[in-house]
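I'd like us to work through together how a protein chain folds, taking it slowly. We need material for that, and I hope you will provide a protein of your own picking. Go ahead whenever you are ready, and we will take it from there:
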Amino acid sequence: MLIDKATIVATLRTRGLTERADWVDRQLPPLVDTARNASLLRMLGLDPEKIAHQTSAEHLEVVSS
């Protein structure tokens, strides 16, 4: 599964993890492969399934507006 890097960065920023968010923004590609980067996502305290679900819900809100 691919997750937009901006979603990961935004999630980290909302948790107050600005330095980690900056690092992710510099180091990761625009689309992050959750299988390839599973260890990194776990280290950052992120659940790829939750982020993917959150992203899908946000896209549905934008489309239905």
Q: What stands out?
A: The helical segments are 5-14, 18-27, 38-43, 48-64. The CA atoms of residues 20 and 26 lie 10 Å apart. Residues 59-65 have pLDDT under 50 and may be disordered.
